[in-house]
Design goal:
Layout lengths: L4 E5 L12 H14 L3 E4 L11 H15 L5 E4 L5 H14 L3 E5 L8 H14 L4 E5 L1 H4 L5 H7 L5 E6 L4 H11 L4 E4 L5 H7 L3 E4 L6 H12 L3 H17 L7 H9 L19 H10 L2
Parallel strand pairs: 1-2, 1-8, 2-3, 3-4, 4-5, 5-6, 6-7
Helix pairs in contact: 1-2, 2-3, 3-4, 4-6, 6-7, 9-10, 10-12
């Protein structure tokens, strides 16, 4: 199975009381299937995985898989800063029928490169599901080096890497080192098109929550080598790429999706709603994207 193109890092819609809103989740999933989104990442950073309990986490993955019903790939966020917890989540994602697991670099405890290597190797050996590494040092502090990714690339069921560093020079070096073994994906909307020009195979996208068809069309054009069309489409998305990060993700994107009428603008503490003085900037970016 291919994991490429526009892979939406789907928000977790919540009701005004903070409970997961499964009716809204179903509507969002259908929107993405109809809009040509190439895959759904459930319960990643944008899905507020850090404030969901384990039962909610697995229930959202299960619901997403059932509603998608094999129409597009479902990648379950299953990472953790405890290797055993990550194995537990990954094992359950496989049992529920996920197509792959996205495993974030352990956060807070600051492992060494050898610790990171053993963490991902241990998960891969424990659970045979396809696994995608996720490096986002801006959130995790620990940074998975290109050298460690290359060591992990030889493990059969480690099939990809989501690189959210936004560092294109480093990304090119990663593609050169192991792009023949792993599907390299951007995790940074603002630089995703440039990364795909270098050989990345798609984007795990926050912007796709708000402009799913534009994002899927842009990624499809880039993968087809039609960079003129891709640039034309990306120019409409640029405001969203920037303004959806004016406060911590997913604060702005939750506001934007609520403005579209799909869910309440509700997050769980310690995240709070978008500052009122910044709402107009997100509104303008949404208008630019149509």
């Amino acid at each position: 199975m291919k994991f490429e193109g526009s892979l939406v890092a789907l928000i977790t819609p919540m009701a005004d009381d903070g409970a997961v809103d499964y009716v809204a989740l179903t509507r969002l999933i259908e929107l993405h299937v109809e809009s040509g989104t190439h895959g759904i990442v459930a319960v990643g950073t944008t899905g507020e995985s850090s404030t969901l309990n384990v039962d909610e986490h697995l229930a959202i993955v299960e619901h997403t898989i059932k509603v998608v019903n094999k129409r597009i790939p479902v990648i379950a966020g299953t990472g953790g800063n405890s290797t055993q917890e990550a194995i537990h989540l990954t094992r359950h994602a496989q049992s529920l029928g996920a197509d792959a697991a996205l495993s974030v670099v352990p956060y807070y405890n600051k492992p060494t490169q050898e610790g990171l290597y053993l963490h991902f190797k241990t998960i891969a050996e424990a659970v045979p599901i396809a696994q995608i590494l996720y490096n986002v040092p801006g959130r995790t502090v620990a940074d998975l080096s290109n050298e460690t990714i290359t060591r992990l690339a030889v493990i059969d069921n480690i099939v990809g890497c989501k690189d959210a560093t936004g560092d294109l020079k480093r990304g090119k070096a990663l593609i050169d080192a192991c792009g023949h073994q792993l599907t390299i994906l951007s995790g940074d909307d603002l630089t995703a098109l440039e990364y795909m020009k270098l050989g990345a195979r798609g984007d795990v996208s926050v912007t796709a929550n708000v402009a799913p068809k534009l994002m899927s069309d842009m990624c499809a054009a880039a993968l087809a080598g039609d960079f003129a069309l891709a640039e034309q489409l990306d120019s409409k998305l640029r405001g969203l790429h920037e303004k959806l990060f004016i406060e911590s993700n997913p604060i702005p994107v939750k506001y934007a999706v609520s403005k579209m009428g799909y869910t309440a603008n509700k997050l769980r503490l310690p995240l709070t709603s978008l500052s009122a003085e910044l709402e107009a900037q997100v509104d303008d970016a949404m208008q630019q994207a149509g």
